[in-house]
Recover the amino acids of this structure.
């Protein structure tokens, strides 16, 4: 025998927990015995605890390891109690799945009771274990569950009792009955911490036993007789005990009364004896009457209890039927919503395609054929009649007589089909409208004009609408707004309208976040083909109105579908990013024209963002500026368990998936999962657009909910025992980086996926398989590993916490900030006019942004102090090269020296009598990058002799900058072709210079060099262009005017002859009337 008081003292166990508990495997033993208990618990008990959300107490919880197992598997409301303060402190530090309290229930404290008291391997430490049961049962309203060593004949030194069938009572205390027992041979466990048997006992209060309506198979109690028989005997014995006690009390009262009478009046002994006999007779009568009344009361109580039980069962059955009906109704409603959404999208797509067909050349060409076909169909009855009654000749006469009548009736009729009505949704936000002839513009209040030092506006040209399923586009846009950018999210839906314009929806009152819907006639779909010329022109006009409304000065354009590329190039954003989320060719319904647009976009984008390694490889084949920025999750939306979660009425384990159920979803794989786990529920949450419901209709253990809101996902996710990703392995999925994996891990859930390239980044956090059988095996392994340890769950959560959308936006901002900028070399040729040179150079420094500028200053032997000024100025600026010619080499010669010294990718020839305006260089570069057919381009100006000249009204340089903005902003992204780009300011890519060579020096000091060079450009198969959105002030021929009028005219005549000898008759330059931008306020 051991020292009973020592073993069960606070001091003993405090010392154990502070010293050798961990070393001797105490934590592992606690989790081991908890798992043994969980496995031994009957299904009816587990279901009752879960569904009724019973409050459970783990008595003698030690450091909470076993309590954590019970909390994960059995109950959401779990409390661990132990009389050791160090143990409870450790439990509170390690686990948050349960509450822990330092108490000694054997002292019978005054505290609220629990529904279930659970005790694992505790009672064997007491010499009188059922006294312990008596104490702890006071704190259980329904059940006491005990796990004990069984038939431990070679007892542990700390154990006081060996439990065996003879010493385990069916009713250890009045009001309690054993309702279930199960013996486990723990030697079969691997690993095992107990080399023998353990017995699980469930005691229930008697009133709970009646409510359970258990069968013998539910109880599984060894020994003779059934549970009902044992209960009946127990009740009879209790009744007999009560009768004996009552009789004993009556006899004692009579005896005491007799003794008193004898002591007081011995003389009246006979009378007293008669009185006692009379009293005994009367008492017997009363007792008999009481027994009858007691039996009637018990019968009535039992009948009333039975009626209440029947009512409660009927109520529960009704609730289950109502819940099932509500779930079926919700499922049908979701399916109908999904189908309506699909039909609307399909109708919109078909109408767009029909409009394109009606506008097509083939439709117009076949118009006559359709008319003839229709005419022949209508005439068949006449022909049949005529042939029957008049023969072939009469039939022919009637036909030929009808033709001229038909043609006269059709004369002047419009053969074009009527326009198809648009099914585009009505936009409730304030619209912006612009009509071609009489503009009527209803504009929402303009936003404050963007400050030059503000963060770039972000234009997100999305692949979806904001209110569609929440995905990467919405998450990135919101986080960019959180980071301080004004974000304008362009929906893929258009408003079908003849006039250009846009409408605005404020998405978040606390953030600068807006959805923009453009007006486009026919409201085309973006997924199948690029916009036609009419749609593109209308969108560009709408964008001009939009940028006038936003007051955008500098911006990023993030394109998420190639359809937007032709439009985005007109915005002149500082940076154009392609967020490549999918392998679009993998969808199979994308036109070759749209694929070609995507190829141009990938080549010309300032930054390609690839969401997967597969897409990265494709991107790097087209563009060196690639950043891999994968998907992520909104960790805070998934890391905490919701207040409510989905519950399977049958209490089955749940293998779950949520997300789109589309063509890439492997329904056959899910069917094999359902067959392999018939006792589990396969729960699929998401819109089914691939007919998967019909494929899986034969499986009773498959449930599909339809589309649910983003905010409802945790409700289902936290019900999943194991999450799965059953995708087909096809090019589309090979390029996919699934958002749902990050969300699964944020909840700490185990995940099984098909083996896709993007699974590699998750390492051991995600189980993968390459075959159907392997997938099933991994699911089985994941289920067998439950409950997952706290460390495993923590690793999953930690990974997801480091992969949020805020992290991804930081990556995007960092990638943009570190982009290599285009290198531009500005060759500034000077000859005297020092004050003009000063203005020109200072404007270059002040108004050049978005490029790496190199200034190559070349002086042609000035004599007015320019050389000294240039020397000092170049010394003060690190990006300046200074070349001082010993003699005047002329316009061509001086510029050729500068071109030869320049290192930029883009070469600019800039007269020193010019002043550039803000953004000039980046806009010219953008035109050349996005339109490789342009070989050389110049700006519009106030003073030149061709189409580049605009009428201006400013009276000084300060006013010039203001007016220049109003002259260029409405034409952002526009350019036109012309014969000669005057060389007061032109830019060409280095490739043009390498193909066409230096400027011809056949023209001496100057004149006609620019005409000559433009002919070279055209002969190389390139175009000469003028940018409508770049204005450069020009004083015009400031250097040549110093030659004198007579010498100047002689030089013009001589050089014209040189030009015509090379290129033929010179065509005089001409001016133009600038077309007004439709609907724009200029």
């Amino acid at each position: 025998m051991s020292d009973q008081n020592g073993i069960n003292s606070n001091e003993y166990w405090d010392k154990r927990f502070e010293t050798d508990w961990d070393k001797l495997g105490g934590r592992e033993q606690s989790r081991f015995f908890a798992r043994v208990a969980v496995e031994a618990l009957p299904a009816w008990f587990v279901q009752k605890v879960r569904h009724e959300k019973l409050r459970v107490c783990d008595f003698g919880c030690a450091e909470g390891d076993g309590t954590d197992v019970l909390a994960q598997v059995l109950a959401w409301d779990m409390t661990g109690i132990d009389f050791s303060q160090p143990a409870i402190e450790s439990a509170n530090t390690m686990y948050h799945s349960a509450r822990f309290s330092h108490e000694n229930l054997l002292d019978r404290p005054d505290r609220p009771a629990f529904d279930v008291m659970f005790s694992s391997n505790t009672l064997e430490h007491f010499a009188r274990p059922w006294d312990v049961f008596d104490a702890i049962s006071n704190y259980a309203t329904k059940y006491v569950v005990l796990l004990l060593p069984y038939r431990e004949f070679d007892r542990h030194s700390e154990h006081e009792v060996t439990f065996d069938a003879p010493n385990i009572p069916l009713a250890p205390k009045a009001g309690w009955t054993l309702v279930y027992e199960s013996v486990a041979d723990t030697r079969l466990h691997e690993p095992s911490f107990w080399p023998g048997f353990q017995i699980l006992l469930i005691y229930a209060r008697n009133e709970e036993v009646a409510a359970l309506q258990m069968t013998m198979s539910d109880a599984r109690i060894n020994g003779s007789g059934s549970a009902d028989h044992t209960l009946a005997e127990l009740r009879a014995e209790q009744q007999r005990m009560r009768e004996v006690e009552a009789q004993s009390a009556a006899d004692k009262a009579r005896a005491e009364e007799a003794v008193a009478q004898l002591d007081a009046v011995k003389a009246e002994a006979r009378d007293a004896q008669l009185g006692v006999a009379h009293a005994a007779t009367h008492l017997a009568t009363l007792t008999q009457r009481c027994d009858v009344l007691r039996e009637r009361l018990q019968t009535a109580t039992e009948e009333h209890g039975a009626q209440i039980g029947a009512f409660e069962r009927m109520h529960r059955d009704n609730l289950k039927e109502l819940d099932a009906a509500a779930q079926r109704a919700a499922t049908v409603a979701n399916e109908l919503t999904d189908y309506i959404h699909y039909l609307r999208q399909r109708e919109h797509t078909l109408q767009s395609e029909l409009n394109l067909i009606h506008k097509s050349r083939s439709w117009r060409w076949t118009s006559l054929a359709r008319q003839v076909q229709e005419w022949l169909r209508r005439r068949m009855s006449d022909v049949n009649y005529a042939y029957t009654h008049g023969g072939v000749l009469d039939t022919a006469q009637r036909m030929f007589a009808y033709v001229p009548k038909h043609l006269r009736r059709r004369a002047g009729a419009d053969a074009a089909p009527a326009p198809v009505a648009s099914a585009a949704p009505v936009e409730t936000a304030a619209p912006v409208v612009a009509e071609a002839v009489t503009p009527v513009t209803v504009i929402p209040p303009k936003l404050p004009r963007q400050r030059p030092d503000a963060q770039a506006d972000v234009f997100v040209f999305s692949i979806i609408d904001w209110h569609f399923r929440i995905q990467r586009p919405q998450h990135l846009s919101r986080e960019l707004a959180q980071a301080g950018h004004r974000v304008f999210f362009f929906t893929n839906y258009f408003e079908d309208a003849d006039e250009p314009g846009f409408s605005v929806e404020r998405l978040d009152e606390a953030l600068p976040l807006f959805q923009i819907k453009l007006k486009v006639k026919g409201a085309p779909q973006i997924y199948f083909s690029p916009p036609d010329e009419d749609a593109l022109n209308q969108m560009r006009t709408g964008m001009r109105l939009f940028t006038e409304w936003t007051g955008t000065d500098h911006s990023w354009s993030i394109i998420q579908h190639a359809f937007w590329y032709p439009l985005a190039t007109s915005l002149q954003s500082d940076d154009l990013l392609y967020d490549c989320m999918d392998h679009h060719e993998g969808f199979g319904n994308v036109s070759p024209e749209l694929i070609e647009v995507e190829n141009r976009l990938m080549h010309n984008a300032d930054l390609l963002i690839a969401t997967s390694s597969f897409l990265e490889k494709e991107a790097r084949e087209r563009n060196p500026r690639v950043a891999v920025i994968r998907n992520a999750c909104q960790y805070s939306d998934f890391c905490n368990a919701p207040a409510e979660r989905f519950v399977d009425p049958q209490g089955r384990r749940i293998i779950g998936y949520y997300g789109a159920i589309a063509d890439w979803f492997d329904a056959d794989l899910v069917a094999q999962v359902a067959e392999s786990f018939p006792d589990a529920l396969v729960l699929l949450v998401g819109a089914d657009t691939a007919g998967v419901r019909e494929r899986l209709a034969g499986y009773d253990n498959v449930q599909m909910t339809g589309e649910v809101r983003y905010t409802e996902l945790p409700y289902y996710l936290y019900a999943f025992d194991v999450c799965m990703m059953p995708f087909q392995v096809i090019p589309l999925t090979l390029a996919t980086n699934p958002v749902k994996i990050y969300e699964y891990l944020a909840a700490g859930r185990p995940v099984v996926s098909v083996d896709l390239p993007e699974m590699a980044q998750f390492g051991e956090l995600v189980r993968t398989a390459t075959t159907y059988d392997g997938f099933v095996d991994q699911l089985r392994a994941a289920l067998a590993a439950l409950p997952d340890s706290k460390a495993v769950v923590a690793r999953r959560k930690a990974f997801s916490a480091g992969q949020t959308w805020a992290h991804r936006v930081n990556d995007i901002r960092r990638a943009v900030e570190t982009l290599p900028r285009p290198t531009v070399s500005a060759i500034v040729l000077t000859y005297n006019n020092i004050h003009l040179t000063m203005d020109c150079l200072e404007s270059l420094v002040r108004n050049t942004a978005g490029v790496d500028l190199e200034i190559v200053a070349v002086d042609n032997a000035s004599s007015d102090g320019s050389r000294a000024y240039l020397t000092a100025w170049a010394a003060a600026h690190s990006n300046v090269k200074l070349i001082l010619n010993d003699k005047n080499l002329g316009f061509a010669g001086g510029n050729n020296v500068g071109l030869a010294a320049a290192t930029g990718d883009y070469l600019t020839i800039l007269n020193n009598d010019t002043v550039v305006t803000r953004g000039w260089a980046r806009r010219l570069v953008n035109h050349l990058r996005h339109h490789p057919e342009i070989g050389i381009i110049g700006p519009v100006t106030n003073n030149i002799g061709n189409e580049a000249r605009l009428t201006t009204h400013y009276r000084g340089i300060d006013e010039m900058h203001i007016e220049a903005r109003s002259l260029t902003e409405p034409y952002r992204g526009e350019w036109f072709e012309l014969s000669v780009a005057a060389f007061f300011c032109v830019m060409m890519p280095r490739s043009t210079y390498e193909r066409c060579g230096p400027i011809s020096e056949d023209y001496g000091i100057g004149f006609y060099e620019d005409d000559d060079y433009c002919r070279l450009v055209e002969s190389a198969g390139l175009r000469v262009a003028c940018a409508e959105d770049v204005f450069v002030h020009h004083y015009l021929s400031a250097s040549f005017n110093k030659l004198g009028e007579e010498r100047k005219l002689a030089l013009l005549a001589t050089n014209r002859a040189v030009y015509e000898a090379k290129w033929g008759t010179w065509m005089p330059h001409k001016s133009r009337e600038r077309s007004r931008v439709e609907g724009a306020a200029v």
